[in-house]
Design brief:
The structure holds two protein chains of two kinds. By secondary structure, chain A is of the alpha/beta class. Chain A has helices at 23-31, 66-69, 74-89, 111-124, 133-137, 141-150, 165-178, 196-204, 243-248, 277-290, 308-322, 335-338, 345-359, and strands at 8-16, 38-39, 52-53, 100-105, 155-157, 184-191, 234-242, 255-264, 297-301, 330-332, 361-362, 384-385, 395-402, 406-413.
Chain lengths: 415, 84
């Protein structure tokens, strides 16, 4: 593996999710198998075929300075809240601004602001459109605001790849540090897309669960009764740092961000390749990039969104990539509890993966009552203690796949 | 409905507090928007729109850019109406 100069570690975590307004609450809820899915009580939901979703556990605007919040779309507010937590968690480090980077993405950006501005334009004319509309709706908005807040000048990037955006941001951040472009990078993803247009759009694709009468049982990855995903919102952020920089300032290190693997399906704009070749390649690439062998892997935070097609493909890809070592790996689908956070998913799930390493426990998968027997790997339905196999540090993988054929796998190892 | 300087100043203070987060008591007539109150051009647009709602006075862009201090805005609001 690389020298200290290129070794990348995780020194801070931040999250605001449907099961907790911060990292500690989110993690505690995941371990307890708590669901954040609720019925949609807004009047606009009555007309829609899907009437449940997973809202963030706290109103982000209430957690921010009012002037700051009113200029931001909700996805940007969530992003800033998580970034602030991660930065404080890392110890509010002193970093040369030109050595500090930000990589934060959202799948769809400030769409609620786009629609609101459109209504204002039609109803009141252009003079009433807020001058902050463009910064609110642009998908790189969260990245920009976080860079501004932290004074990060090495570079600010937004890696849009639908449901893989949050994971890809972390992968990009790892590479930024390895390439010597930055010593510290705040990386993650955010999404706030629980609005009628998005629900209707996903419902039109038949991608969402219709189990409206049992919201907390609707997100059921790997279960035979799954019928689509449940929309969630939230943000996750990690502070990535070169091991050398972290050591110099005596930072507390959660885990090593060992590697990232990318692949593309080139199969269908929204459906996964049933052969799972891209997913398998991404997992293998992450292992290779991180210098991790399959038997170091003790846990996988699966992408598993509770769609009929996707979950099986992923299970088989994990089995193919890990081979015999797949036996004994605790595979968990935390979307069973949080729902699908789209651009925020890969980041919140990376936070969960890192904490699984720290606490040596994999979170459960809830609602798995009748496992699909085509999955090919064993799914953890209870919190599972993690133990290293052999003398090498244990490793945890996080998969994220997105519409467009994106496959991203992150590999973290114990310090 | 002629408003006094004090009323306009108070109204402006509310607007600036809402738009830019500057406490109303810091909004004194002598202050410049850019240097003293740290208010950017995007916020100035918002302030102008809010001022239109509150005082019934439109401030076109080419006039707005000449309003450098709080007093400038108070004077603008109080000036006699110009018939189109």
């Amino acid at each position: 593996m690389g020298t200290d100069q290129t070794r990348v570690v995780v020194t801070g975590l931040g999250a605001i999710s449907p099961v907790g307004a911060d990292v500690a609450t989110t993690w505690k809820s995941l371990l307890a198998g708590r669901s954040g899915v609720v019925p949609l009580t807004d009047s606009w939901a009555g007309e829609l075929p899907v009437r449940m979703a997973a809202w963030a556990a706290a109103e982000p605007a209430a957690l921010l300075d009012r002037t700051q919040a009113r200029r931001m779309d909700r996805c940007e507010q969530l992003g800033i809240v998580a970034a602030q937590e991660a930065w404080a968690d890392a110890g509010d480090p002193a970093v040369d601004p030109v050595r500090l980077g930000v990589v934060v993405s959202s799948g769809i950006g400030g769409i609620a602001s786009t629609l609101s501005a459109y209504d204002t334009l039609r109803e009141k004319g252009w003079q009433r459109v807020s001058p902050f509309t463009v910064p609110m709706l642009m998908p790189n908005g969260a990245a920009g605001w976080i860079s501004l807040e932290l004074g990060a000048r090495a570079g600010v990037h937004a890696t849009v790849s639908a449901c893989a955006s949050g994971a890809e941001a972390i992968g990009y951040g790892i590479d930024m540090i390895r390439l010597g472009r930055a010593d510290v990078v705040v990386a993650g993803g955010t999404e706030a897309a629980i609005i009628p247009l998005n629900i209707a759009s996903f419902a039109a694709m038949r991608a969402l669960s219709l189990r409206n009468d049992e919201p907390q049982r609707a997100s059921r990855p790997f279960d035979k009764g799954r019928d689509g995903f449940v929309l969630g919102e939230g943000a996750g952020m990690v502070v990535l740092e070169s091991a050398a920089h972290a050591a110099r300032r005596g930072a507390t290190v959660y885990a090593v961000a060992a590697g990232v693997g990318y692949a593309a399906d080139a199969h269908h704009i929204a459906q996964p390749d049933p052969a799972g070749a891209g997913a398998t390649r991404a997992i293998r690439a992450a292992l290779a990039d991180g210098g991790v062998t399959p038997d170091q892997v003790v846990h996988v935070n699966a992408h598993a969104t509770s769609t009929p097609a996707g979950d099986v493909v992923e299970g088989q890809a994990i089995a193919a990539a890990l081979g015999a070592a797949a036996r004994g790996v605790a595979v968990s689908a935390t979307k069973s509890m949080t729902g699908h956070l789209l651009g925020g998913a890969g980041a919140v799930e990376s936070v969960a993966a890192v904490l699984a390493l720290r606490d040596r426990v994999a979170p459960p998968t809830i609602n798995l009552e009748d496992p699909d027997d085509r999955v090919g790997v064993e799914i953890a339905t209870e919190p599972r203690e993690l133990r290293a196999r052999g003398n090498t540090p244990m490793a945890v993988l996080n998969n994220s796949f997105g519409f467009g054929g994106h496959n991203v796998t992150l590999a973290f190892t114990a310090v | 409905m002629a408003q006094t300087e004090q009323e306009i100043l108070a109204g402006l203070g509310e607007i600036i507090d809402e738009v830019a987060g500057v406490p109303a008591d810091q909004v004194t007539p002598d202050k410049t928007f850019v240097d003293d109150l740290d208010i950017d051009s995007l916020s100035m647009v918002e302030i102008a729109v809010a001022a239109q709602d509150k005082f019934g006075v439109q401030i076109p862009d080419d006039h707005l850019r000449n309003l450098k201090t709080v007093q400038d805005v108070i004077d603008y609001v109080r000036r006699p109406a110009v018939t189109a």
